[in-house]
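Field reference: sequence -> structure
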Amino acid sequence: MVKISDFQTKEVVNILDGKRLGQISDLEIDLRHGRVESIVIPGPGKFLGFFSSGNDYVIPWRNIVKIGKDVVLVRMEETLRVEAKNTSPDEYG
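Structure field:
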């Protein structure tokens, strides 16, 4: 089992091009089914969740190839970028 705090210290690397994408800042969780849907990595230029254009990398859980001691290997044909969303508590109902 892995704690979220341990998971956030791991570097995420795309195995197709060797590119380091950064460290995990957040997880998207399906509360109805109790499973992690994707990992979120701050976009380029983002520092501690601040000072960027608002774009994050969102990588679906199915694209994770291996979770190692220090690294999470992902397979991304094309790096996904989505606008950061403000989620209100009403959206969890």
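Note: The CA atoms of residues 32 and 53 lie 31 Å apart.
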